[in-house]
Amino acid sequence: KRDSNQLKYIEHENFSLKDSPINECRIADIIENDPSKIGLGECEIIRRERHQGNRVLDFLIQQEDEDIRYEVELQLGRADWSHICRSVLYWSKERKKTPQYRHFPVLIAEEISQKHLELISHFNSPMIIIKMQGNIINNKDYILDFHILLDGRDSDPVSDDSDDDKSSLPTDEEYWKK
Known about the structure:
Layout: E1 12-15, H1 24-33, E2 43-52, E3 55-63, E4 68-78, H2 81-97, E5 102-111, H3 114-120, E6 128-137, E7 141-151, H4 173-177
Parallel strand pairs: 4-5, 5-6
Antiparallel strand pairs: 1-6, 2-3, 3-4, 6-7
């Protein structure tokens, strides 16, 4: 239990990573040094900048001690349809290459509109959306935060083999005639 007298508020302000000297490569370095920062748990980088045809997957990450892989697309600024679709395409290709793993497409962006989130939640892919936020403290120290906005791991339609909806009623021809 923390004493409220021990809490210290530090003045900070949000800033746009897209409009800052911090580029996508620097953010990728931060993620590569400690992939757990993005909030997916203890993970290891399988590959950074994995080529898929004429496109490049930013990260292929594997959950430690589990058969789960994440295809991660990083975008500065506002998420757009191009990056959203790319995330799902990378996921689809990797899933076909290594079907022994459960796969999840991940998009990390600074901003994602509510309309994008609503539409993505209806995709037939277990997508994960992570918002990254840059903060500056005392005009000198930078903080990079990651927050999961949409987590498709709990509703993975592809790997859901359970048939909870099975009825005990027969569904043969005689049943339908009645």
